[in-house]
Amino acid sequence: MKLVLLVLTVTMPLAQVIPVKKCWGKLGRCRIMCEEGELFYILCNAEAKCCVNPKYVAINTGFSNYTGSLE
């Protein structure tokens, strides 16, 4: 029983999840590879990319000179 307690005491801190570094106003996550459906816009550090879901990225349409006529 003491051996089981010792093993649990040693392995529990090792099993904790490493906190994920956030980016893009806390809407993105720093990863080596982005998951399917995520986009990469900026770098978090030398090896990690800021992976963001496209629904959180504003669409830059630029300046439009459209007046509604067909000419």
Automatic annotation (TrEMBL):
It comes from the Eukaryota. Keywords: Antibiotic, Antimicrobial, Defensin, Disulfide bond, Secreted, Signal. It is found in: Secreted. Residues 22-51 form the Beta-defensin domain. InterPro entries: Beta-defensin (IPR050544), Beta_defensin_dom (IPR025933). The keyword Signal applies. The keyword Signal applies. Residues 1-17 form the signal peptide. One of its GO terms (biological process) is defense response to bacterium. Pfam families: Defensin_beta_2. Belongs to the beta-defensin family. Has antibacterial activity. This is Beta-defensin. The lineage of its organism: Eukaryota, Metazoa, Chordata, Craniata, Vertebrata.
